[in-house]
């Protein structure tokens, strides 16, 4: 009886303490609501004109192989971008169960030609040797759908020290076995998914220093040369990428492998990149995440440009690999964000309702305006090759902080319309005119794939051609009759 009384008293004190602590947290880390001050974007339009567009001379060829030799009216429209406008299909885990999943895919396809698809190890191989890419939400179904819609695919990731199977996290599993597991996992992904165009190689390598030293993947990193003492790298993170690419590259010599990290200021990320360059370790792209989940993480016009200019020195394509712009209040710095993240973690780990901050009309306007300026400046930088929006909807968002293009019911938010206007209107080329007497016309447009339509008498014809920054300035286009 006494023990029961003591337990009740302890429970009462714990609840009372928690209730008292909650307003202190809210008081100590209040949400900040911002208006967007428009960026000047000086020189951006001129750079877009210079780096994202080109000239092409087109010669039309009839279906029988003979040159068209007469003036004819034509219409031409761009049907695909060469630039990679991307979205993630790795985060909206609850969406497949909604009645608006088909709309979700329609909205995604309308904006994006590049899809980041999940290959999270912990989601697909819960038991050693039993790889299952069929049942987890947003896996095989969405992968096949992206391929059917002719999107370029990035696999995310080949390897990572988070979202791991329990048997890889096991502190008692020998590092020699983990080494074998890692090698088999990488080989499986490369060989079983040859359609993947890009791979995040080892995601966020420097972040391992914040993980438990007994974690299987941390022990594996140290096993292959990434020694850590007192939270600092001794050998540096470069050998990890070297090891992963030693496994992957022979299986896919033409592979496109991306380094990726969440902190563009991390000295160890720069050390990792420089190690690869100094040791002639071939990688193709540099991934930079821009999750703007608090004020100190958010970019101004100057800080975004300075970051892009800094990374330009490595002479590698820049992938803005994970973009989040909130449509809710945000915290000043990491302390408030950590409180929010802990609440989100607790809900996810215990199957509780996600504690989501409300998306407000004011912050949705902020999200749309900042996103527009962010995309214009990024698209204007010649080193940027990929821009990927990370969360498509506000349904169960990461950290419970809405940054989706769609709301919780799958309806487009203002930010969606801003991106639609940029990607499908301002940055696409459509035109019409009349060929010369030799069936030729010339134009300047955004790089990408085009369709041309002509009518001769009662017959209609179509053809397709590429305007590429890597291609020729002349194109012979074979027409086919439309029946």
Explain this structure.
The chain is built from 14 helices and 18 strands. The protein is α/β, with parallel strands linked by helices. It has a domain at 87-412: TIM Barrel (Alpha-Beta Barrel), CATH 3.20.20. The strands form 4 sheets. Strands 3-4-5-6-9-10-11-12 form an 8-stranded parallel β-barrel. A 5-stranded antiparallel β-sheet has the order 13-2-15-16-18, with no helix packed on it. Strand 10 (285-292), helix 11 and strand 11 form a beta-alpha-beta unit. Helix 2 crosses helix 13, helix 7 (175-192) crosses helix 8 and helix 11 runs parallel beside helix 13. The model is unreliable at 1-26 (pLDDT under 50).
Q: What topology does this entry show?
A:
Layout (H helix, E strand, L loop, with lengths): L1 H27 L15 H8 L1 E9 L11 E9 L2 E6 L11 H11 L2 E5 L2 H4 L15 H9 L3 E5 L9 H4 L5 H18 L5 E6 L12 H8 L4 E2 L2 E2 L4 H11 L7 E6 L5 H12 L6 E8 L8 H11 L6 E8 L8 H16 L11 H20 L3 E6 L24 H13 L3 E5 L5 E7 L1 E9 L2 E9 L6 E5 L1 E3 L1
Parallel strand pairs: 1-17, 3-4, 3-12, 4-5, 5-6, 6-9, 9-10, 10-11, 11-12
Antiparallel strand pairs: 1-14, 2-13, 2-15, 7-8, 15-16, 16-18
Helix pairs in contact: 2-13, 7-8, 9-10, 11-13, 13-14
Task: Characterize the biggest β-sheet.
Answer: 8 strands, parallel, barrel
Sequence stretches where pLDDT stays below 50 over 5 or more residues: 1-26
Query: Can you say what the CATH homologous superfamily of the domain at 87-412 is?
Result: Glycosidases
Share of helical residues:
25-40%
Number of strands: 18
Alpha-beta content class: alpha/beta
CATH topology type of the domain at 87-412: TIM Barrel
Fraction in beta strands: 15-25%
CATH architecture of the domain at 87-412: Alpha-Beta Barrel
Distance between the first and last residues' Cα: 89 Å
Task: State mean pLDDT (0 to 100 scale).
Answer: 93
Largest sheet, order of strands side by side?
3-4-5-6-9-10-11-12
Shape: globular
Determine and state the CATH class of the domain at 87-412: Alpha Beta
Number of helices: 14
Radius of gyration: 26 Å
């Amino acid at each position: 009886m006494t023990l029961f009384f003591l337990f009740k008293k302890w429970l009462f004190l714990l609840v009372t303490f928690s209730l008292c602590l909650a307003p202190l947290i809210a008081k100590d880390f209040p949400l900040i609501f911002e208006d967007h001050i428009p960026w000047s974007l000086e020189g951006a339009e001129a750079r877009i004109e210079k780096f994202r567009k080109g000239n092409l001379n087109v010669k039309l060829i009839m279906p029988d192989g003979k040159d068209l030799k007469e003036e004819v009216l034509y219409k031409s429209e761009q049907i695909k971008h060469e630039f990679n406008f991307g979205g993630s299909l790795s985060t909206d885990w609850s969406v497949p169960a909604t009645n608006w999943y088909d709309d979700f895919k329609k909205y995604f396809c309308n904006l994006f030609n590049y899809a980041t698809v999940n290959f999270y190890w912990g989601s697909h191989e819960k038991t050693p040797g039993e790889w299952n890419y069929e049942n987890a939400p947003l896996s095989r179904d969405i992968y096949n759908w992206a391929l059917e819609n002719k999107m370029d695919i990035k696999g995310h990731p080949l390897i990572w020290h988070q979202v791991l199977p329990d048997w890889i996290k096991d502190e008692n599993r020998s590092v020699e076995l983990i080494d074998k597991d890692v090698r088999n996992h990488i080989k499986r992904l490369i060989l079983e998914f040859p359609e993947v165009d890009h791979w995040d190689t080892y995601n966020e390598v420097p972040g391992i220093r914040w993980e438990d030293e007994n974690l299987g993947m941390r022990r594996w990193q140290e096993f292959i040369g990434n020694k850590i003492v007192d939270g600092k790298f001794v050998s540096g993170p470069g050998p990890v990428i070297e090891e992963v690419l030693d496994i992957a590259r022979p299986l896919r010599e033409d592979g496109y492998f991306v380094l990726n990290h969440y902190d563009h200021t991390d000295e160890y990320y720069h050390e990792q990149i420089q190690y690869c360059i100094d040791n002639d370790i071939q990688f193709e792209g540099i991934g930079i995440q821009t999750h703007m989940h608090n004020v100190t993480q958010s970019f101004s016009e100057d800080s975004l440009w300075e970051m892009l200019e800094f990374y330009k020195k490595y002479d590698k394509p820049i992938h803005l690999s994970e973009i989040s712009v909130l449509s809710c209040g945000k915290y000043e710095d990491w302390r408030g964000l950590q409180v929010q993240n802990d609440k989100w973690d607790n809900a996810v780990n215990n199957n509780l309702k996600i504690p989501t901050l409300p998306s407000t009309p004011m912050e949705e306007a902020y999200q749309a305006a900042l996103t527009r300026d962010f995309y214009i400046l990024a698209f204007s930088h010649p080193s940027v090759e990929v821009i990927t929006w990370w969360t498509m909807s506000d349904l169960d968002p990461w950290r419970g902080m809405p940054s989706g293009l769609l709301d919780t019911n799958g309806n487009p938010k203002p930010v969606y319309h801003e991106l639609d206007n940029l990607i499908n209107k301002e940055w696409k080329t459509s035109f019409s005119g009349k060929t010369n007497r030799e069936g030729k016309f010339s134009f300047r447009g955004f790089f990408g794939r085009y369709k041309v339509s002509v009518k001769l008498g009662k017959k209609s014809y179509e053809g397709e051609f590429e305007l590429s920054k890597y291609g020729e300035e002349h194109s012979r286009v074979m027409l086919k009759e439309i029946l």
